[in-house]
Structures are given as C-alpha cells and as structure tokens.
What we know:
This protein has 101 residues and is mainly α. 77% of the residues lie in helices and 0% in strands. The chain contains 3 helices and no strands. The termini are far apart.
Amino acid sequence: MVVPLYHILAFAGLLFTIGVAGVLFRRNAIIVFMSIEIMLNAVNLVFIAFSRYYGNVNGQVFVFFIMTLAAAEVAVGLAIIISLFRNLRTSDISEIHLMKY
C-alpha cells in the first residue's frame, strides 16, 4: 500500500504546526526543545516523502545531515538546560535573563 504524497505532506504540516505552537506558546525550556525536534522531524518527513516520490536519494542524504545536526543540538541544548536548571532552579524561559547583559 502506497500512501499518497499529499497525505504525508499534510501530516508533516500538522507536525510542523504543533512544533511552532509549542515554541511560541510554551514557557518550559524542555517543551520548547521538544517542539524544535518535532519541527525538524516534520522537515525530515517531507524530505523523505519527496525523495521517495521522485526516486532520488538526495532527500535521504539531507535527512542524514539534519539528524546529525539534531543530535548535536540535543547534546548542547540539554547541557545548557541542565546547567540553567542547576543554577536557577527553574526551566521557565521567561525567568532566564542571563543573556541580556
């Protein structure tokens, strides 16, 4: 059974919208971080869908690079979030003012 391309694109659009809403409306740093990951996965899904649709592997190569970038982002981002939580005892991004000065 082959899933039509527009179904995959609609699902990816929904995932990306959920990610954008999470970044814009949530204040918890972990939730914002997971929302960014959801957006990256939506982009990966689009790349894979078009790669399969056109029978070209270029999209799969881009997905590999995005996954590598996401892994690096997770390592650095979680380290920053843990460090901020240890120092400030909060993960609310509206209360973090360290980068202002």
